[in-house]
Amino acid sequence: LVRLIPIWITSVVSTIPYAQFMTLFTKQGVTVDRQILPGLEIPPASLLSFIGVSILVSVPIYEHVFLPVARIITKKPFGITMLQRIGVGMVLSSFNMVLAALVEAKRLEIAKEHGLLDKPDVTVPMSIWWFVPQYLLLGMIDVFSLVGTQEFFYDQVPTELRSIGLALSLSAMGLASFLSGLLITVIEWATGRDGGESWFNTNLNRAHVDYFYCMLAAFTAFAFFAFLFISKLYVYRRVDQV
């Protein structure tokens, strides 16, 4: 189990961005135009359904397109190893945070152009569909990183400790959510003290959630490079899994 700890630590760090879709993504969605048809608005939380849609589309593409191509390139029956699958998910996670930062920067720009910085109750004239790509990427991250992590820990622990392997993957997600909350608390204190504007101002038009997303992108990128180094040193428990 000790040899799995470094992989587990990098998994925790790279999963922190995943915690944002239930909180900040939804909060941003409240501020924009949610009308999809005349007189019909969708709740911002409904965008979570795109994660499921993305998974349903990504799984067959992964199985019938990505893996066959990977087998041709790598000359390996598995196409890619479990660690490589996790690594792809980490890259997607970092990219998703960059995308989220760009979308939020665009939202702030539109709010400023329309003089809405101090009018948090007024809808920002920006379609909620701008946020859909973030949710689609979350589904792809599920297919690569989260499923890959569960598969890896379940497979690499001793057979009699399989339940612990599953617990390791789930605990990584749980701890990532906790660290996300802790990070937000610390940043809010650091940026909001002495009368400064907090990155998490209750008025999102005066907040800087985009900065936070950039920070998470950097954290995930750092975790990915650490993961690459650790992966090169890692020896699979069974040779046929390499």
From TrEMBL:
Molecular function GO terms recorded: transmembrane transporter activity
Signal sequence residues: none
Main localization category: membrane
Coiled-coil region: none
The keyword Transmembrane is assigned to this record: yes
Subcellular location: Membrane
UniProt-recorded name of the protein: Protein NRT1/ PTR FAMILY 5.16
Lineage: Eukaryota, Viridiplantae, Streptophyta, Embryophyta, Tracheophyta
